[in-house]
Amino acid sequence: MKVKVIRKEHFNAAHRLFNPSWDEEKNFAVFGKCSYPNYHGHNYELEVSLVGDPDPQTGYVYDLKLLSDLIDEHIIKVFDHKNLNLDTPYFKNLNPTAENIAIIIWRILRQHIDNQYELKIKLYETERNFVEYPAH
Amino acid sequence: MKVKVIRKEHFNAAHRLFNPSWDEEKNFAVFGKCSYPNYHGHNYELEVSLVGDPDPQTGYVYDLKLLSDLIDEHIIKVFDHKNLNLDTPYFKNLNPTAENIAIIIWRILRQHIDNQYELKIKLYETERNFVEYPAH
Amino acid sequence: MKVKVIRKEHFNAAHRLFNPSWDEEKNFAVFGKCSYPNYHGHNYELEVSLVGDPDPQTGYVYDLKLLSDLIDEHIIKVFDHKNLNLDTPYFKNLNPTAENIAIIIWRILRQHIDNQYELKIKLYETERNFVEYPAH
Amino acid sequence: MKVKVIRKEHFNAAHRLFNPSWDEEKNFAVFGKCSYPNYHGHNYELEVSLVGDPDPQTGYVYDLKLLSDLIDEHIIKVFDHKNLNLDTPYFKNLNPTAENIAIIIWRILRQHIDNQYELKIKLYETERNFVEYPAH
Amino acid sequence: MKVKVIRKEHFNAAHRLFNPSWDEEKNFAVFGKCSYPNYHGHNYELEVSLVGDPDPQTGYVYDLKLLSDLIDEHIIKVFDHKNLNLDTPYFKNLNPTAENIAIIIWRILRQHIDNQYELKIKLYETERNFVEYPAH
Amino acid sequence: MKVKVIRKEHFNAAHRLFNPSWDEEKNFAVFGKCSYPNYHGHNYELEVSLVGDPDPQTGYVYDLKLLSDLIDEHIIKVFDHKNLNLDTPYFKNLNPTAENIAIIIWRILRQHIDNQYELKIKLYETERNFVEYPAH
């Protein structure tokens, strides 16, 4: 049986939910306050989990210090204290919902973590709204 | 791969654990302090999760504001500041354990959420006792 | 300069806010859902703090295990899994608001803790509603 | 002895720390990532406390439902999902640090709460950075 | 569909990560500060979950008071306020990583809980580092 | 009126409570499990607060990034992943209770923070046991 290991990190960012093919009125009807034009923001809490077998030499599935460094280099440095819509390349044509941010983070990290490890993202936009990708 | 979205709500309620086919002594032997006749209560924390595909127009699996409204109308209005045994129709012949409350909440919400979305309930009775339904 | 030490405990109880000199309508106007006749309940989180000088032999202001035992004997055993209105002697003629519960807990514990220690109570009714007594 | 009652609310907002009399370089030297031009944001947690005597008729120092409504009308409606620098009148010439936001919230609420009640603000910008006003 | 029930407990322990077949230098290169010779420690938070069907007589999948007692007898009494490397029989030849502690706890509890119940361990070493066993 | 600013940090350490002028039996009678000879440990959460006036140029009472760096250099580097009794100079002749650790941290930081700022330490040994120094 395999073990799952989880590392939790955070970043603070601004964003706005907005579909550019709709007018302001429709955007407000669908996204409410999240569509306000001058952005709002969140303290995002990010949990990254990996599944694998503990290494018999170390007892680690994956060194969580190394995982933390990977998240820092590829996610925190890119997203923290940024405007997700304007300052990152990922949300020029993609709405920065929690769902889409989690998918993007998964795609970025997947390139840097060996495929022997299952990878999963849990992202808290607030204490009461959060998402997981993939769901299973 | 699908995404899971979760909305967390809460309600405060009184309850008592009690099997009416047993006498007080056996109820106390099985349920301990939870069987005290005049009720006690909890701050229940409720997490409702849905699994689906993000809509390409919105980036939402499900509008969590809409999910919050559904929970409010069908669960919070019915359970909040109520005596679960006396004031709700669900626990006249069913013991209001966390397990049974979670199953009831699932059954109520299942009627109002399209079957394309997997639905799951996580219910905290206290920070140290909580349940999930369905388990998988 | 003195040190403050704090011990956190919890109890689960039912209560109802109600002024018997008013009719149901006025009680509902003032206390809203908290006045529902069949009670609701809370997971109360209780912080008890004492101020004093560390003992040079132990480094303790007060043994928190001993404080925990005192709280258990005089508060938890009396309030936990009880109906505050019906099952305790304190709220027969006193509304069990968080304010009044905190004052009662202070008065009970004050009898069991030497007056050389300042005593203060912080009581969480929910994560979002809480009180302190005395205020200063 | 008086009782303190506390109500906790939250809002999500974008902001940027910036002194317009300095150039970008000096702003970055002083404010670091907080000075990035396109804003970032936070889930602000706000605790509002009042000190007073419990009313003998109600057992309340202050109805926390009423306090919640006041905070909602005068603070949350103005700050939530807004850009504090651009969308509110308060930070046109005042840097929206946690310190200054807390002072502004205190000044707004002070006008709506009778002076018999001491008023205090605690504002969490993140779980690890927070402020209180007034300090004593 | 089955229900999962979860009980959360905690223990405080010292440990050191160390592979005795390596020298100090290699241990420090792999385990960093966790390899310091005189031990450090953690407040471990332990979640034990069981999956089964609610009993029609009680509404319980498993009496969480009984589960708490089992955890107390077989885990807390053995691990709490102990040095995991020196004071327990489990980590004489096994590195006490969170992964290995979770596996050991699972093996101990599996002997005391009927196999009709799926058993799972979640162990928090810190708020930011935690593991689950089995992963699925 | 002045503002209080707070920065929260953490460290993980081992310790043992023990009075060397007493025998093992008396140490166990007074300190219980905390006196076990091979040490146990905690995730210490440390809140450092400063009181002062916001600087009109920055809106800061004190740059919390700078405060975090000071705590890191003088406290975290010295205490984190250490055995408080064996690896630090402070507890050779002083019992490392939460009270004494808080006093030591205050004394260390007081040397590095201008006296115009009131300084206060809050230290969580566990979620349920914590201390403040000075108390007022």
From the structure provided, what is the oligomeric state, counting identical versus distinct chains? homohexamer
Low-confidence stretches of chain A: none
Number of domains of chain A: 1
- Mean residue pLDDT of chain A: 98
Largest interface: A-B, 24 and 20 residues
Strand order of the largest sheet of chain A: 3-1-2-4-5
Number of strands of chain A: 5
Strand coverage percent of chain A: 25-35%
Give the proportion of residues in helices of chain A: 25-40%
Structural class of chain A: alpha+beta
CATH architecture descriptor of chain A: 2-Layer Sandwich
What is the CATH third-level topology name of chain A?
Tetrahydropterin Synthase, Chain A
Shape of chain A: elongated
Word description of this protein:
By secondary structure, chain A is of the alpha+beta class. Chain A has a single domain (3-133), classed as 6-pyruvoyl tetrahydropterin synthase/QueD (Tetrahydropterin Synthase, Chain A, 2-Layer Sandwich), CATH 3.30.479. The first copy, chain A, is 30% helix and 29% strand. Chain A contains 4 helices and 5 strands; from the N terminus they run E-H-E-H-E-H-H-E-E. Chain A has helices at 24-31, 64-79, 84-87, 98-110; strands spanning 3-15, 40-52, 82-83, 118-124, 129-133. In chain A, strands 3-1-2-4-5 form a 5-stranded mixed beta sheet. In chain A, strand 4 (118-124) and strand 5 (129-133) form a beta hairpin. The two termini of chain A are 17 Å apart. The mean pLDDT of chain A is 98. Strand 1 (3-15) of chain A pairs antiparallel with strand 5 of chain E, so a sheet runs across the interface.
